[in-house]
Amino acid sequence: MVDNIEALIDAATTAGQAAIRWREAQPADRKDVPTTTNPDGSSVTEADRIAQHEIQRMLVPLDRDAVFLGEEGECSKANLDAFPLDTRVFVVDPIDGTNSFLDRKPNWSVSIAYAKIVADENLGKILQTCMAVVSAPAKGRLYYADKSGATLKTGRKRESLYVLPDTTGLPTMTFYCKKISDTDETEPRRLAMKRASEDTSAYIQDGEKGSPALSLAAASTRPNNIVVTREDDPFQPITGGVLAPWDSLAGRFIYETAGGTYPSNADRHRNMRILGNLIISIMAPSQRLADNAAGALMRAART
Questions:
Q1: How many CA atoms lie within 13 A of 276 on its CB side?
Q2: Regarding predicted confidence, which is higher, 29 or 196?
Q3: For 252-281, how does the pLDDT look when each residue is reduced to its tens digit (9 = 90+)?
Q4: Is there a contact between 277 and 179 (Cβ–Cβ < 8 Å)?
Q5: CA–CA distance from 179 to each of 148, 191, 193, 285 (Å)?
Q6: What pLDDT is attached to residue 171?
Q7: pTM score, two decimals?
Q8: Are residues 255 and 144 part of one domain?
């Protein structure tokens, strides 16, 4: 059993360094970098597999009874519903934000959560995080949390993280965009929606674009209402739905340990629109806000 957060910090740091070395050895233009595509359309590089291997090599020997759930390869197919309660799980995204990584932009991270399977009255089996690390090596920042609190590590400096009081008055919104089918026009429309969401930032804010885990972790130094990643449900059961556990588990734990709150979608309101081959979903604290945000988003997308 892992009882020291330093083990996760060392693993995330080693994986991040391995990923950077791989990217530096590749052509500068991402078009010339060898990639494959996951079933969900996301890009995968050899760096993803190298980083995950490093994490697995360093952490599995520390808890051989734990399940290793990683985004890449066969590790992503573990059926956690088949395991009994209290089973411990390593949840790993070796490179969260592969597009940013390929473009040599800093908004990518290595995400590791150490959790156990518990029972939830409404959701059934879910993952309860015990400790987590989100490392942004290209930014020189590493966020982590355990039972003692949340911390930001920059070089040798470590500072405790506390979510700031909400002073903005803006409601939390979640924007989610999903392809209906693969056609030639899907990517242009996806880019149009990305621009539109940025243009309507008075309604929709999402921190560190490119990496949901980093967005959540970095929000530990921001007002309490602005954590938004472009996903559908922050309170995701371990099976089914839009979010896989590695998408947000570590970042969410760091944010909540720092004192942040992320409202459940159970008491939120939705407005869904279709634009070409995309489904656009807005979640908001009230139906009026959801409708207003969706209307503003659609108007911006059409200009």
A1: 18
A2: 29
A3: 899 889 887 665 554 567 777 766 656 666
A4: yes
A5: 41, 12, 12, 25
A6: 56
A7: 0.74
A8: yes
Pairing of strands 109-120, 157-160: unpaired
Tell me the C-alpha to C-alpha distance, in Å, between residue 270 and each of 235, 263, 278.
16, 14, 16
Number of domains the chain contains: 2
H helices, E strands: number in the chain: 7, 12
What whole-number distance in Å separates Cα of residue 45 and Cα of residue 38?
10
Same domain, residue pair 276 and 301: yes
* Residues 163 and 295 placed together within one structural domain of the fold: no
Tell me the residue range of the domain where 244 lies.
1-169+208-262
Task: Say which residue the tokens 């970095």 belong to.
Answer: 218
Q: Cα–Cα–Cα angle for 258, 263, 269, nearest 5°? A: 160
Could you tell me if 178 and 97 lie in one domain?
A: no
Q: In whole angstroms, what is the distance from residue 91 CA to residue 213 CA?
A: 12
3-state helix, strand, coil in the chain (%, to 5): 35, 25, 40
> Token pair for residue 299?
């108007």
